[in-house]
């Protein structure tokens, strides 16, 4: 099967889909068993068509041991019952991040099904992203039959830290971990300093690159020399001269130069991971600032240089976070969505987000509850996604706009966030009141030459138009007044 070659667009829109429960819900809707091989055409022609790429999360074979562990975990059991009022043991399929082997799960259509889905996406100029988990595999992974891939311990480690180490035969191994949290007891820790492990990573990624256009790398910062040596110390061995990602990413790019690497990364390490080869990195800082309504901190964040901003992944929801409606509330989530989908970089939307779904599904479940679609939220997102600069903005310019008070007695102007996109004679101005208060301001639209013409500002979110004189725009700026959590995406044109 020959897949159409697609070029990555600048500032792509990516839809994350939790694959197994999504396919299960489609099977219920269409009343037939659906896997990756027989997804109805109309499914691709609905919300998926609004995106530049789809991230199919959780397509790899899952671990039987991970499933059993997930069935016995008391905290997870509470989450299952919270998400599914009719929860049954068979709903647990194990964690997608305890990979048994990097083969496409036969239960969702196997490799042939994935190729079929990829072809359907490519026909619509949509690219495919899959997962890679560099830090660990499942404790029963087929990789455990190979040597020198993992962090090993001693009998003393096992006896004194039974929740951090386990045995396979006569050998003791470490569970996978993030140093800030308890160990993931369904996983075994890969040694980022091991040359064998690095070679295994390269070979695995080369195989994955034959099936998709990019990977989202789970907890990518855990594999850096700085973090790994701090987490594992002498057990990791000698610190290599080259960083893990500086060795592995170029090996993939040499054969697949257009293959994209996306890093899940926290702790302020985005810049480091970008310099180690990642095309895009999570922007958790922006997420947190949006949650806590720190407008000045948001503005300061947006003052970073283009080279950094254009490589960030903006989001208000993914499989790790609460649903946006629950975390932000409906009105605030809309304002946050306008910002995260119109900034430079990747715009990540979680499947169900545009329908206003409220229930966060544990990743160990293969079935999700039925939720009514919120038609108001859906209509908002349809307008928003269609308003985002597209083909007219292939190589766009972007600038944060200065916001000034209407008068000295009103400081509500500080709640307004605004920025301009432009390419040749195409302009889009984004203005958002990111606060719970009515706010007004003058927005200085720079760089822009208004001269003495009249200018039409058409809001692509509600199709209302406003006319302003060039002299007034130049002298005072654009007069804006917005209710709480409201925003505009203006298309600017000369009358």
| Global Rg | 24 Å
CATH architecture of the domain at 13-132 and 283-388: Alpha-Beta Barrel
Globular, elongated, flat, extended or rod-shaped: what is the shape?
globular
- Indicate the CATH topology of the domain at 13-132 and 283-388: TIM Barrel
* Binned strand content: 15-25%
Beta strands, count:
23
Q: Strand count, sense and closure of the main sheet?
A: 8 strands, parallel, barrel
The assigned structural class equals: alpha/beta
Low-pLDDT parts are none
The first-to-last residue Cα distance is 50 Å
Alpha plus pi helix count: 17
CATH class of the domain at 13-132 and 283-388: Alpha Beta
The neighbouring-strand order within the major sheet is 1-2-5-10-11-12-13-14
- Fourth-level CATH superfamily of the domain at 13-132 and 283-388: Glycosidases
Question: Notable features of this structure?
Answer:
495 residues; alpha/beta; TIM Barrel; Immunoglobulin-like; eight-stranded parallel beta barrel; six-stranded antiparallel sheet; 17 helices; 31% helix
Polypeptide structure, described:
The structure is a single chain. The protein contains 17 helices and 23 strands. The chain is an alpha/beta fold. Among the domains are: 13-132 and 283-388, Alpha-Beta Barrel (TIM Barrel); 397-494, Golgi alpha-mannosidase II (Immunoglobulin-like, Sandwich), CATH 2.60.40.1180. An eight-stranded parallel barrel has the order 1-2-5-10-11-12-13-14, surrounded by five helices. Strands 15-17-18-23-20-21 form a six-stranded antiparallel sheet. It has a four-stranded antiparallel sheet with strand order 6-9-8-7. α7 (195-209) packs parallel to α9 (244-255) and α15 (330-342) runs parallel beside α16. It is globular and about 80 Å long. The mean pLDDT is 94.
